[in-house]
């Protein structure tokens, strides 16, 4: 599989912790970029598949406890909730955690990293998992 090139989006200092920022990729794709309290950065599609609007960068950052296997404790995963209808997605996978009673509509996740004080994002989304 060929890796998508990484594109510099902004200086890390332009992001606020747990607040999204909208960005535009060279091909016109709108994304939302998030800096979490643990210092990680995440990038997702800007388009909310439930409302049909480009608002996910305004979403509510949170966490969700995934169920564990048997008596094993679950894993805490970062999430984003739509500011419109409050559906919730896993920021790592794009998988729907809470579809608000509707059909599960996953979102695209873009690889994101910090290099030399700047945020870089993949030019194309990661392939979706079968679970998403």
TrEMBL record:
It holds the Pfam family Rieske_2. The keyword Oxidoreductase applies. Residues 8-121 form the Rieske-like [2Fe-2S] domain. Keywords: Nitrate assimilation, Oxidoreductase. InterPro entries: NirD, Rieske-like_NirD, Rieske_2Fe-2S_sf. It comes from the Bacteria. PANTHER family: NITRITE REDUCTASE (NADH) SMALL SUBUNIT (PTHR40562:SF1), PTHR40562. This is Nitrite reductase (NAD(P)H) small subunit. It comes from Brachybacterium equifaecis. The lineage of its organism: Bacteria, Bacillati, Actinomycetota, Actinomycetes, Micrococcales.
């Amino acid at each position: 599989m060929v890796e998508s090139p990484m594109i510099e989006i902004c200086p890390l200092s332009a992001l606020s912790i747990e607040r999204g920022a909208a960005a535009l990729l060279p091909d016109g794709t709108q994304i939302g970029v998030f800096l979490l309290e643990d210092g990680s950065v995440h990038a997702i599609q800007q388009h909310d598949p439930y409302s049909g609007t480009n608002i996910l960068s305004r979403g509510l950052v949170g966490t969700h406890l995934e169920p564990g296997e048997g008596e094993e404790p679950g894993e805490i995963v970062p999430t984003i909730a739509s500011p419109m209808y409050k559906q919730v997605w896993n920021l790592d996978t794009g998988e729907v955690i809470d579809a608000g009673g509707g059909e599960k509509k996953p979102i695209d996740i873009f690889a994101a990293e910090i290099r030399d004080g700047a945020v870089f994002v993949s030019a194309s989304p990661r392939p979706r998992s079968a679970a998403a």
